[in-house]
Structure formats: C-alpha cells, structure tokens
Write a structure and sequence with these properties.
The chain has four helices and no strands. The chain has helices at about 1-10, 20-40, 45-50, 65-70. It has one domain. By secondary structure, it is mostly helical. The model has no long low-confidence stretch (mean pLDDT about 85).
Length: about 70
C-alpha cells in the first residue's frame, strides 16, 4: 500500500479547503486509485490483496468486528 502511494500519488496535494469528511473520502478514493494502478503493474498483488476486500455479512457488523477484521493481517 505504501509503495502504491510512493509510486502513484502526487506529492503535496493541498487539502486545506476540504472538510474532515472530505479529507477521509479523498483518502479512500486515492487509496483505491493507487492500489489499482499498482495491481495493474504487478498482477500478483490483486491476489495478495483479495482477502482484505472479501465481502462480509452486514448482519452483526460492529465496530469491534471491524477492528478484528482489520487486525487479521
């Protein structure tokens, strides 16, 4: 993920005019953009990252479960 940003993110993009939610949304979009570009360069990454993007059941989705999923490394 960090390599994707290093290779494909423009440096020094200003976020001064964005609200906190705008910064968060822009960050999510940028994450998806750079990861897509890096996966196009190295197709094996799509397989490596696939478990992180597997759909989950919404029923019973709590903050605790989300944290547990994120920590599954």
């Amino acid at each position: 993920h960090a390599l994707a940003h290093w290779r494909h993110s423009p440096s020094g993009e200003p976020v001064d005019a964005l609200t906190p939610i705008g910064v968060a949304i822009a960050g999510l979009i940028e994450d998806a953009r750079v990861e897509t570009l890096l996966a196009a360069e190295w197709p094996g990454l799509a397989t490596f990252w696939a478990p992180a993007f597997a759909p989950i059941e919404r029923d019973g989705l709590t903050f605790g479960r989300l944290c547990a999923r994120l920590s599954e490394g």
